[in-house]
C-alpha cells in the first residue's frame, strides 16, 4: 500500500497500466479523499506534465459536474493527486450492474451535455470522454467528469500523425480528428464525438466499433458508419446517437 505523509489509505480502487487510485482520508481533518498516483516509479517528463496538467486545469473550474482537486502533493519521483471522495462510482462500473432505464440515461446524458457546454465556454477540450472518466452518485444519479490529464486549454489544436499505440485518448472512444489521419484540427467537437460513443455504449451495452487491432479501430472511426442502435429505442434517441 502506498505510504503518503498526512494521508491514511484504506483501499485500492483501481490499478491501471499508468495509474493507481486509492480511497483514504486526510489525517488532519479526517476528510474522505481519493488519491491518484502514477504507477511508474520513474515517470517520464511527459507523464509528469500530463499528471500535473489535470490538476492545473481542473482546479480552476467551477461546475458541479466536475471534480475539483484538493491538492497536488509530491510523492517519490512524481505526484499524488488528492480529490474529494463523494462515494461515487465510475459509470463504467455502475451502469452494467444497475437497472438501466431511458429515464436514467436521459438524466445522465443531459448532465454530460451541459458540462461539455461549460468546457466549451472555458475553451477546454477534454479529449478523453468515456464511462470510466465519469463518476455517478448511485443515489442521486448526479454525474461528475474526471481526468483532465490530456486536456488542452486551446480552442483548437492539430494532431500529429503518430502510431495508434501512442495516440492521446482511448482508441475505442477517440474522434477521427484525434487519430492525426485527417486534415482537420481538434476542437470541441472531438468531445461530443466521444460522448456519442459513450451514449451508444450505455444504450446498447456495446461499443460501435470493437477490435483488438489499433489500426482497424482508427480506420473504423475515420471511414465506417456506426451500426444502428437497438430498434426498440425511440427514434429521436436513435437519431441523437
Structure commentary:
The chain folds into two domains: 7-84, Phosphorylase Kinase, domain 1 (2-Layer Sandwich), CATH 3.30.200.20; 89-240, Transferase(Phosphotransferase), domain 1, CATH 1.10.510.10. Helix content is 30%, strand content 18%. It contains six helices and eight strands, in the order E-E-E-H-E-E-E-H-H-E-E-H-H-H. The protein has helices spanning 45-58, 91-97, 102-121, 189-204, 214-223, 235-240, and strands at 7-15, 19-26, 32-38, 71-75, 78-84, 89-90, 134-136, 143-145. The strands form two sheets. A five-stranded antiparallel sheet has the order 1-2-3-5-4, covered by helices on one side. The protein has a three-stranded antiparallel sheet with strand order 6-7-8. Helix 3 (102-121) packs antiparallel against helix 4.
CATH topology of the largest domain: Transferase(Phosphotransferase), domain 1
Structural class assignment: alpha+beta
Q: What pattern of helices and strands is seen along the backbone?
A: EEEHEEEHHEEHHH
Give the strand order of the largest sheet, numbering strands 1, 2, ... along the chain.
1-2-3-5-4
CATH class of the largest domain: Mainly Alpha
Tell me the distance between the termini.
Answer: 42 Å
- The CATH architecture classification of the largest domain is Orthogonal Bundle
Number of strands: 8
Share of β-strand residues: 15-25%
What is the CATH homology-level superfamily of the largest domain?
Transferase(Phosphotransferase) domain 1
- The poorly predicted ranges are 161-166
Task: Give the key terms.
Transferase(Phosphotransferase), domain 1, single chain, alpha+beta, three-stranded antiparallel β-sheet, 2 domains, 241 residues, 18% strand, 8 strands, Phosphorylase Kinase, domain 1, five-stranded antiparallel β-sheet
Amino acid at each position: 500500500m502506498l505510504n503518503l505523509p498526512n494521508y491514511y489509505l484504506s483501499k485500492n480502487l483501481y490499478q491501471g497500466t499508468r495509474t493507481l487510485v486509492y480511497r483514504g482520508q486526510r489525517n488532519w481533518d479526517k476528510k474522505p479523499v481519493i488519491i491518484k498516483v502514477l504507477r511508474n516509479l520513474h515517470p517520464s517528463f511527459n507523464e509528469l506534465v500530463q499528471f500535473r496538467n489535470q490538476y492545473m486545469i481542473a482546479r480552476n473550474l467551477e461546475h458541479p459536474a466536475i471534480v475539483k482537486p484538493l491538492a497536488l502533493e509530491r510523492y517519490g519521483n512524481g505526484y499524488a493527486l488528492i480529490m474529494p471522495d463523494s462515494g461515487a462510482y465510475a459509470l463504467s462500473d455502475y451502469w452494467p450492474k444497475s437497472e438501466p432505464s431511458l429515464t436514467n440515461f436521459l438524466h445522465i446524458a443531459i448532465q454530460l451535455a451541459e458540462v461539455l457546454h461549460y468546457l466549451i465556454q472555458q475553451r477546454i477540450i477534454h479529449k478523453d470522454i468515456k464511462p470510466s472518466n465519469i463518476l455517478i452518485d448511485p443515489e442521486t444519479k448526479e454525474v461528475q467528469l474526471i481526468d483532465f490529464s490530456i486536456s488542452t486549454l486551446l480552442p483548437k489544436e492539430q494532431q500529429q500523425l503518430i502510431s495508434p499505440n501512442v495516440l492521446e485518448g482511448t482508441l475505442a472512444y477517440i474522434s477521427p480528428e484525434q487519430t492525426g489521419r485527417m486534415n482537420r484540427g481538434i476542437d470541441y467537437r472531438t468531445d461530443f464525438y466521444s460522448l456519442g460513443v459513450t451514449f451508444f455504449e450505455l444504450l446498447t451495452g456495446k461499443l460501435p466499433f470493437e477490435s483488438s487491432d489499433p489500426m482497424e479501430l482508427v480506420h473504423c472511426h475515420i471511414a465506417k458508419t456506426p451500426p444502428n442502435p437497438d430498434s426498440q429505442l425511440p427514434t429521436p434517441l436513435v437519431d441523437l446517437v
